[in-house]
Design a protein that fits this description.
By secondary structure, the chain is an alpha/beta fold. 41% of the residues lie in helices and 26% in strands. A hairpin with a 5-residue loop joins strand 5 and strand 6. Helix 3 packs parallel to helix 4. The radius of gyration is 17 Å and the shape is globular. It starts with a helix and ends with a helix.
Length: 169
């Protein structure tokens, strides 16, 4: 087998595994939610980031505290752009709905794995997806750990938005 064939088969296998890993566990999105403001949150508190806890990573990567808002913003904007005709995703304090993205792991490649939950103001789970990833690695892969996370967070946001959009129909 040629190198190209092996790489193609490997890429196809990875795509299949990634698609299978993302599991929508709850989907009770109603038509009444259309146009609703949804507050977005992204949490790295219990994540394993490049094999470290968040405090360890913050100590290792001095720019973590200044770059973390950009990583969160990239994800939020990507979700919002993908679902813009259905929902208003943003920083809406006091909104009736909250979309929480809980990061569980950031791999050595910067690949973000997370769980996402959409709840109403009473805490009722309306939508949840587990083991969400951003899909395939982009052809442009920046060098620093934080730069990779910025790219992956946007990919995760776009993927989450497309799943929300699909489930809303």
């Amino acid at each position: 087998m040629s190198k190209r064939t092996i790489l193609t088969l490997l890429a196809a296998t990875v795509m299949i595994l990634q698609a299978a890993a993302q599991t929508v566990t709850t989907s009770n999105l109603s038509r009444e939610m259309r146009g609703a403001k949804i507050n977005f949150k992204m949490d790295f508190t219990n994540a394993e980031i490049y094999g470290m806890t968040e405090p360890e990573f913050a100590e290792y990567e001095k720019d973590w505290n200044s770059d973390n808002p950009t990583i969160v913003r990239n994800c939020r904007k990507a979700v919002g752009l993908t679902v813009r005709k259905l929902y208003d995703i943003g920083t809406h304090k006091g909104a009736a709905y909250t979309l929480s993205v809980i990061v569980t792991k950031v791999t050595d490649e910067g690949f973000i794995i997370c769980n996402a939950t959409l709840t109403d103001s009473k805490g009722t789970v309306l939508f949840s997806v587990e083991d969400l990833t951003g899909g395939n690695e982009p052809t442009f892969s920046p060098g620093t750990k934080l730069a990779k996370m910025k790219v992956w967070s946007a990919l995760v946001g776009r993927k989450l938005g497309s799943i929300l959009k699909k489930e809303a129909k």
